[in-house]
Amino acid sequence: MMFVRLFITHWLVALVALVALLAFAEWLAPRFYRSHLEQMMTLMGSQSLELRSDLERGLRSTLTTAWLASLPLAGLLAGLMAWLASRRISQSVRQLAQGSRAIALGQYQNRLKVQGDDELASLAQDFNRMTEALEKVEQHRTELLSSVAHELRTPLSALQGYSEALADGVLPPEQAAAHIEREVRAMGRLIDDLALVSRIEAQAVELHPQVVAVEAAFQEALERYATAFEACGVALKLNPLPSSVALWADPLRLQQVLSNLLSNALRYTPAGGEVVLSASLQSHHVRICVCDTGVGIPLEHQPRIFERFYRADPARSRHTGGSGVGLTIAKGLVEAMGGQMGFESEVGKGSCFWFTLPRA
Ligand code: ADP
């Protein structure tokens, strides 16, 4: 339908141009011819009216023959060009409409054919880029849903086990209640962490940055973790700090990052090991390191360690109680506060997680 309308419009435009050309030529040609005729007759010294009207008739019949021969051909050519142009536009629009329908149906894998390098081609390219982005979002969503379902299944089956044991009288009520409470707390933590991850990914974390003294922040973290480290037989040390270093950060979020790194260090460092907290100055940032003498991260897992729910050793990590998003959250928060995060690790020797934050 659109093709027919485009074709007729294009063709009509070309025909109007042809008719205008004809009208101008009809108007101008006899005038030019007559002035030329006058000059020729004067040169020849002839005043014959008969010769003059004969030559004018000759022009008339030449023009008519030329028009009759060329107009249908020009009309056909205009039709051909109109057909080609209309087909190109209507094909692109049809392609776009098909692509949009596929997206509306949730099919993101199709890509449009890009022809030429005009506006229609760049529209098709933009459309493909949009489809690619939507495909990634959809993939992301599906992965997230299946990970969440998987993560929730573990505490849920534990809860089911404890409640059955309680019903069968296999577990004393106090013991069952303690287990159930622990699992419920783990689920609550997981849900809070997930909500934070989604806010980080949507770049919607609320931050209240202010000047934070590194020493005070480290002391707060050490106090919070001293008992847990002692209980596990892991030494927690603080390297001497460069004098009066201050950061520009949200103090609560900074504590959350330190907590995630310290709890990981504790989780993956066997008794007898040690964890050292240190800070160093860079030109515009402060670099903070949490180094442990723990199990280390195998090389093949290192590139994916900051991904949501990625665990180097799933059985061990799940058993030791992490929600699997600790590093995702820590990195997201550091980046939201204008810093970067990374690590170095060697199996059997330990890991050093570092992050930078702007200096106050
Ligand atoms: P989890 O809650 O499982 O600890 P994280 O996102 O905090 O999740 O960490 C992801 C994975 O990175 C962990 O499962 C573990 O395999 C690895 N990891 C993190 N920190 C350390 C560390 N200090 N030493 C060794 N492995 C670590």
UniProtKB/TrEMBL annotation:
Chief location of this protein? membrane
* EC number(s) per entry: 2.7.13.3
| CDD domains xref list | HAMP, HATPase_EvgS-ArcB-TorS-like, HisKA
Record-level GO cellular component terms: membrane
Q: Which PROSITE patterns match?
A: HAMP (PS50885), HIS_KIN (PS50109)
Identify the stretch annotated as signal peptide in this record. Answer: none
Q: Which UniProt keywords apply?
A: Kinase, Membrane, Phosphoprotein, Transferase, Transmembrane, Transmembrane helix, Two-component regulatory system
From the record, give the transmembrane residue ranges.
Answer: 66-85
Q: Which InterPro entries match?
A: HAMP_dom, HATPase_C_sf, HATPase_dom, His_kinase_dom, HisK_dim/P_dom, HisK_dim/P_sf, Sensor_HK_Regulatory, Sig_transdc_His_kin-like_C
Kindly give the Pfam families that the UniProt entry links to this protein.
HAMP, HATPase_c, HisKA
* EC class: transferase
Q: Domain (Histidine kinase): give its ranges.
A: 147-360
Its localization reads: Membrane
Q: Spell out the reaction equation it catalyses.
A: ATP + protein L-histidine = ADP + protein N-phospho-L-histidine
Give the molecular function GO annotations.
phosphorelay sensor kinase activity
Known SMART domains for this protein? Answer: HAMP, HATPase_c, HisKA
User: Residues in domain HAMP?
Assistant: 87-139
Protein name according to UniProt: histidine kinase
Q: Which organism is it from?
A: Meiothermus ruber (strain ATCC 35948 / DSM 1279 / VKM B-1258 / 21)
The organism's lineage is: Bacteria, Thermotogati, Deinococcota, Deinococci, Thermales
